[in-house]
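Practice problem: predict the structure.
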Amino acid sequence: MVGLRNTLSVGRGVKSIYDEIYGYIPVSDLELKVIETPTVQRLRRVKQLALAWYVYPGAVHTRFSHSLGVMHIIGLITDKLINEGFIRRDDYELLRIASILHDVGHTPYSHAIELHMTQTFRIRHEELATYIIENDPYINDVFSEYGVSSKEVSSIIRGTHKEPLYNMLLSSDLDADRIDYLLRDSLHTGVAYGMIDVDRILHTITVDKEGELAVPTKSVQAIENFYLARMHMYRAVYHHKTIAAFQVMMKSIYEVMLNELRGYLEPYTTMSNILSTIKKGMFYLWDDNFIAGLMNLTLVKNLGSDELRDLIRLLLNRVGYKAIYDRIKLSQKSLSLMDSEEAESLSSLRGLITDSLGYKDYMAIPYVEELNLVDEDLCVKIVDGDTTVRITEFESSIINSIPRYIAISRLYVHPYILDKVKDMIKK
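Answer:
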């Protein structure tokens, strides 16, 4: 990692922030003002990988350090593309500001509670981030002082900016977000599969004749490793069986608390209330500590039901849900799991557990995910002489041989009913 630090730490700014991967990251006065807002400081109190530290104890890094890393990476790419004439120098800070703010809409415990948000309110953290950028008083005070358009910043995160290249820098198969989280998550989990040749990528990345990000043929191996790293990190970290079990458990706890202790979770209980906290400058208080504190309070004050307190004790003592069914499929074609017979079978099995055995819904949770590893239409482009092709069309690339999709089907059950469910399945 020495070469990476020496190469990437060069920059200009009024202050430098030390990062465990890149060394000193220089920030401008405007960037520093945005970083110092309560809204961005909140990300220090939201772990990047939620409950992954239950499996990988070192995975306690935060959305804040990741956001700084994405800002740094996008700054390096932007600087290179400015020198090559593809980006206006005046937009350098605009792109870095969008990077700082790209994850500002993450809920406490990241994807664990976002599962609830997407299912209940049909909203993802990217959409919440754009609302925050346009309505948060702290951020907009800084933007007003420096003449920054909140709508233009949010358009980059939405992927609707008038310059398609700006959207790709933050959201594409080879974007600054993916580059940083693979490096950072690999470092903190200790999972070596996530390591990528970032030096080669950043020094050779360019723009093709169609205005899209591309790399020359000499960097094909670095891009292949990038795709393979993502595939392995999906399996070893992001959708690890035990980590996913704790995330599902946290979602169950949160939903039971919403039902039994709703007053303690106010005002972060409905979408309209959450949006209201953003406008009032209160969103920054909704963090991992807020939820963790309520779980502790529930036990100290004997709040809620016995079932809720049992769930919390189990989580705090690292006793998670157990997978009674676990299947991973790799395929060249989409398996459409949500509509598959397998999904129906999992639903039926869950019904037997909750109906026949009389257990509550939160005691048996289906977990069905399909991940697109290589998107034929959006994958990285390779510049080969005077032509540019997708890496899937580049004959000598091993990407032609790896799966396009990974599908995960699981059924998690509460540890208290594991033996009874196993006996039922045997019969």
